[in-house]
Amino acid sequence: MVEKNGNERRAKRLLVVGGGMAAAALVEEVCAVAPDRFSITVLSAEPWPPYNRILLTEVLAGKHDVASTRLRPLGWYEEHGVQLWTETRAVRIDRQARVVHAVRARRDQAEFRAVRSGDAKPLSLRYDVLVLATGSRPFVPPIEGTALSGVYCFRTLDDCAAIGRAAARAQRAVVVGGGLLGLEAARGLLEHRVRVTVVEAAPQLMPAQLDREGGALLKQTLEAMGIEVRCAAQVRKVTGEERVETVELSTGEILPCSLVVLAAGIRPDVELAREAGLAVQRGIVCDDQMRTSDPHIFALGECAEHRGVVYGLVDPIREQARVLAQVLSGAGPQAAYWGSRLAVRLKVMGVDLVCLGDPRGEGPGDEVVVYREPARGVYKKLVVRDGKLEAGILLGEADTAGVLTQLYLARAPLPERRAEVLFGTASGAPILSIFDLPDHAQICNCNGVCKGEIREAIVLGKCRSLSRLSAVTRAGSGCGSCKSLLKQFLEVYAGDEVGEDEAEHHYVPGVPLAKPALVREIKARRLKSVSAVFAALAGGREDPASKPGLASLLRTIWGREYDDERDARFINDRVHANIQRDGTFSVVPRMYAGVTSPAELRRIAEVAEKYQVRMVKLTGGQRIDLLGVRKEDLPLIWRDLGMPSGHAYTKAFRTCKSCVGTDFCRFGLGDSIALAQKIERRFQGLEAPHKLKLATAGCPRNCSEAYVKDVGVVAVEGGRWEIYVGGAAGSHVRKGDLLATVRSHEEVLQLVGRFLQYYREHAKYAERTYGFVERVGIEKLRAVVVDDREGLAAALDAEIEAAVASYRDPWAEEAAAPVFPGQFAGVERLEAAGEQPLAGR
Question: What is the SS3 assignment for 633?
Fold first, then answer.
């Protein structure tokens, strides 16, 4: 740093203890207002760089991986001169010497991985300004038996990993705590298909946010979705030999379970401050500038107590960080934090809930507006004081949550027709004018994005769509409640230049190109690996959620030339078997058209006995499923079976089901078995945007359900075959559309091949054929595939021929020569590399 007189001045040493959202928010604010004033060091006890704790439920549910939770890319800290030390725990503050003594793990910091215990070494760091952002610790109720294996807290990424591993083996779980944290944990567990019971000591759920009626309706709604709820009950004891077996309640009820999640609240982490002699009550006592009893030490976030209040939500944390950055930088030495109004949002399995303030604290002169629709799980309540919103609840419908939240936070007057706040205006006009909001008004509470930042991104940054605006500012990338307001900003500040939301048309979210443009670029640049695509088309930024889609597309384009990077595959595709809820796998050998032989049946039975397969089951696709196979046994089983993979685990051609056709059935009009075998042998293992299930039927009686398959072929009178496409019989039921009627097996194979290739080239990733057919239209498909009006038939025939010629049985991979270390060595779990938990696979 250089002063006006030309002399160099040492940057002040700003030391932040804590690596959570509070620390990250402060560092961002300081770097924005005074980038050269401080030399910043951040100590984090966790092995991860600062991450968005709001997304923990999504991580547990498998909707987000570790990398996508990071608040900033790793390179951001280096670019801003921030020294980030993970796995570093502060153990003592020497206030007189202004030194923090810490214990740091010895590891490669760039990898942010956990290390063995005992590898720690002491560390001493001097500071000019110290900020304590130590956060909070989960509250562990005084319950007997919580030391048993199978009991977990729900607070960190490591907790998510441990709970995910346990959930893969569990059938029943008990969540202790029916507040915000407990319900989010329950939601994550449901994604693992675990039967969940929530136990809440209060008479209702979310007692800190909801009134009695709202709590009762939330309980009713959750129970209808499969979550069991016990209110007015406490966990008295957790029992078991070494692992959890039962939970005993104060009501006398005993709940069998093998997993217990403690989500009964949090407590400020103040031990470091207390031992240093700072003023501590419930939290570290701070003044309006977040200064502690030591003028050189500040505190913010969940560990700080301001005017007798400790805040456990992200909105107050960001407000505190903004004030503290102004104070520390000198940009606003008189800046002050006056406290926060609280807004809470919960999304649990489709239950949308927004709570503003305390709707239970109705005063004698307050106006109370209530709308209830119990049959639909809808409950809305406003507490109006002096014409302004004092508190509110939106349960079941939260379309106006963004506007309602801004009215609440800004203490703005409500419209005279209160219903407009709950349901919107009859004309569709905005309830709240964004011009009435100051630039510092926080629009996105999840990421702390203010009106001024959004306006600048639109006006100066030329963001012309919601997706672009969200990518640049991060607004709307959390719970999504602010998106309606973001659209209003776009309409006002971009006007006629508002563009279509291009992200909806991106083939994968991490590469900003629609599928045709993406394919053109891949072919033109000859990009044959997922990492090459990210490097060339995404600025080198890798998006874990985009990898499977890109891998599928590249395999479709390049066939054998594709440069296979195994980390881009789902776990199923890495080991060529379908992972089960307990961490074992299922093996499904191929049986063409469901036809097998005594020798194959004998081998299957011998393998099942030899490897102690826990279940042998006939599948809906006329094959035999061997369930409960250990990962390390997979290549040995494939070797002993001597049969090709049935591809029951991947987005590819699965099976062609058949009825008995003409050989035995007295109604048969065509040899459906022979045709199904030809179809299955030709297209086996064919890569596709989604799984493909086909069927042939020897007559219109439809015994093989050919009418509701991705492709179905039905024999009709006159020796003809009808080809149907886009059928479905799962959660979506749809009869396929008639593509063509032909006379020979050869014509069936040709037209089916053309359709599959056109689907492979033009469908979105993970788009089933029924969605593709509805989107494109059967007339268009007939014109391309049957009538060749666009002159594509020859190219489609050539491409599908090349694709089927490149088939190689994946079960040829052997245990003695794994493609990558550990391919068949134990079940992979959530790891520091950003792996997704089992439920997301």
Answer: helix
